User: Which sequence fits this backbone?
């Protein structure tokens, strides 16, 4: 039984190999040449990708450096602007509150007089 299996394996290998050689669309040299070109293109693409990654990494580092320099300055500037706005707005807000109180007093007076005339 094992002898039959081995005979079949050898026979199948010989027939398959022969058919592959006879029916192959290209010669072995052409196939190897194409395979070599594809490998060279893949290697070049990988080199380009590696270079792009290095460039991106360098750009990212420069951006991080700029951000760490600019953010504190921006925060200080915003803090000063907010303080200046509060300094200018506080007296105005107080005047508006006083005017609102005066208006409220004027509005309250007619209501009490209207109530007393209705009673």
Assistant:
């Amino acid at each position: 039984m094992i002898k039959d299996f081995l005979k079949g394996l050898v026979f199948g290998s010989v027939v398959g190999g022969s058919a592959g050689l006879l029916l192959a669309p290209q010669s072995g040299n052409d196939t190897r040449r194409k395979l070599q070109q594809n490998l060279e293109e893949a290697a070049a693409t990988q080199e380009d990708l590696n270079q792009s990654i290095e460039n991106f990494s360098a750009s990212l580092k420069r951006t991080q450096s700029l951000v760490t320099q600019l953010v504190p300055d921006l925060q200080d500037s915003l803090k000063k602007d907010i303080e200046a706005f509060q300094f200018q707005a506080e007296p105005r807000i107080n005047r508006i509150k006083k005017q609102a109180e005066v208006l409220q007093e004027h509005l309250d007076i007619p209501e009490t007089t209207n109530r007393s005339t209705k009673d």
Remarks:
- The chain has two helices and no strands.
- The radius of gyration is 44 Å.
- The helical segments are 2-23, 28-118.
- The first helix runs from residue 2 to 23.
